[in-house]
Amino acid sequence: MGKIVVLDEHIANQIAAGEVVERPSSVVKELVENAIDAGATKIEVLIEEGGLELIRVVDNGSGIDPEDCEAAFYRHATSKLLSGRDLFQIRSLGFRGEALPSIAAVSKVRLLSSNNDTGLGQVVVIEGGTLKENEQTAAPKGTDITIKELFYNTPARLKYMKTIQTELGHVSDVMYRQALAHPEIAFILRHNGNTLLQSQGGGDMLQVIASIYGINTSKKMVSISSENLDYKLSGYIGLPELTRSNRGGMSTIVNGRYIRNQGLHQAILRAYHTLLPINRYPLVVLMLDMHPSLVDVNVHPAKLEVRFSKEAELNAFVEDSIRRLLSEQVLIPQVVKQNIGRGESRSVIQEQFHFQSQRNENLQYKQSQAPSQTEINSPQGGYSSNRDTTNAPIEKNVPNSGYTVREQISSGDRARYTGGTAVPPVSGASGKLNNSNSYNAKVQIPEALYSSPEQKPELPAFPELSLIGQHHGTYLIAQNEEGLYLIDQHAAHERVNYEYYLEKFGHPADASQELLIPITLEFTSAESEKIKERLHWFEQAGVILEHFGGGTFRVVSHPYWFPSGEETAIIEEMAEWVLNERSIDLAKLREKSSILVSCKASIKANQKITPEEANTLIQRLGACKQPYTCPHGRPIVISFSAYDLEKLFKRVM
């Protein structure tokens, strides 16, 4: 006699419930998606004890036909698919017909639904997969489904449920994502009688963001809209100052369905590259619309993961759209002191400071024959960093080169350029900002960096600032007509050097010089074998390593512009990164090397600098492509508006 038997319907549904109904939030997700598919404009979710005791979902959608109410609980019964072709063009959120029978197998369900305005509907009661009631009753148009005692007949599953607060957090997260995905629907979430979410349903996503994350957060969101032949992108992205400790703040919605996709998350993070601190993540809500044939949603039991037919193109489209939008923003946080809560407790909230000035398309460095007198006193009583100093030559020592370059920035070319040519560094290896000169140089941004003149990005200008002084040898204090600014001198100098060295590492072999006395490095035997296999990566950075026997390697040459005295430390850190990195590519190596060198070459905190040096630093910062964060993502500049200062001193009430 054969051993293989076909399981009965009840056992099959309980098995399916193990995949579909993981916890109360899974039930809420499936029921809310059914309501959305029914065309509801208002969905109310009531839960008790984290959803373990009661889950009730009420909607005003199209309802269910009386003869279909019982059939809806049959396994694989669905109204969403009529043929196999429909499986490849799914436009609804639900389509498998597994959710309702799976839920009914592990709970007590009561379904009340009506598809007309006559006041009559159908009620169906199922307990543990067994039909208890199916009859006509009074009901308004729409569907009201109640789930009681979830997992009452599967004690093992019930035992491993988390605390009520944990389950409530998962339910809330599901509702938040659905509200963001469908701002045109009014969502209400209540737990034990307390309202946790109430969206208006007016179609304004920013209002939904405000109701979920708060008004102050919504003020720091920027609208995004982009489109190509295959995809349409809309939604809001947070300014870099608005970060989270995990990826939970990244909501990606595809054709109205919230999904998790590692490729999209990586594309978003790449777009925010160097704008976020380490281990911090942005807050974004992205809605992607595409033809259903370009996405396969039938790859995950809970339909949380999808597969894209053109994933590489989609990721590139998202990354480019976000990066382009961020590059158009002036990312200087404004510090506003506000009362939060009761009593005297106070908190500092950062808001975006907007500037309306336009940005020049490029920046030229012109040849200077003799230094002009730098004007120290500005009309505002501080040190001027704009018109009075732009014609003064800016002297700079090229690190470890044996010669010095003096350059002059004209007042007409003050706006920071947006091309690919690096801004020469402000400092040499010693961290000083002004040095002597030995010959003059002229640096012109090549037109070849742009495919056409029309493609030059129009970006907002870095504000013109007048230097006031230095605080604790760490922060530069500046001002303009908009307010007061604080600049982290180390972060600013690091950004200037980073963009310079990033360009230099594009052609490191041209600058590589042999050493009279090679630098020796020691590694373990295991590390030595790995270094031997990756010597070519060091060559890509202009560093020539030779095996000297055992675990010893010697550096026979490196780029001449490595900061003097820091060469060994830089190469050791580079070697550590090469050893620990699993996959290396030229772009990552170039960037990592630039960060290492720029950090070593930059002035440090608690280091006094002269007003001329400070003005030079501010000018060079303004000439950077991205002057708002250091390469590690920390902010460089923060501001206090004149109005906020007046509020602090009670000049305005």
UniProtKB/TrEMBL annotation:
Residues 359-435 are annotated as: Disordered. Residues 209-327 form the DNA mismatch repair protein S5 domain. One of its GO terms (biological process) is mismatch repair. SMART domains: DNA_mis_repair, MutL_C. One of its GO terms (cellular component) is mismatch repair complex. Gene3D superfamilies: 3.30.230.10, Histidine kinase-like ATPase, C-terminal domain (3.30.565.10), MutL, C-terminal domain, dimerisation subdomain (3.30.1540.20), MutL, C-terminal domain, regulatory subdomain (3.30.1370.100). GO terms for molecular function: ATP binding; ATP hydrolysis activity; ATP-dependent DNA damage sensor activity; mismatched DNA binding. Residues 467-609 form the MutL C-terminal dimerisation domain. It comes from the Bacteria. InterPro entries: DNA_mismatch_repair_CS, DNA_mismatch_repair_MutL, DNA_mismatch_S5_2-like, HATPase_C_sf, MutL/Mlh/PMS, MutL/Mlh/Pms-like, MutL_C, MutL_C_dimsub. Residues 359-411 have a biased composition (Polar residues). It holds the Pfam family HATPase_c_3. Keywords: DNA damage, DNA repair. The keyword Ribonucleoprotein does not apply. Belongs to the DNA mismatch repair MutL/HexB family. This protein is involved in the repair of mismatches in DNA. It is required for dam-dependent methyl-directed DNA mismatch repair. May act as a 'molecular matchmaker', a protein that promotes the formation of a stable complex between two or more DNA-binding proteins in an ATP-dependent manner without itself being part of a final effector complex. NCBIfam families: mutl (TIGR00585), PRK00095.1-3 (NF000950). This is DNA mismatch repair protein MutL. It comes from Fontibacillus solani.
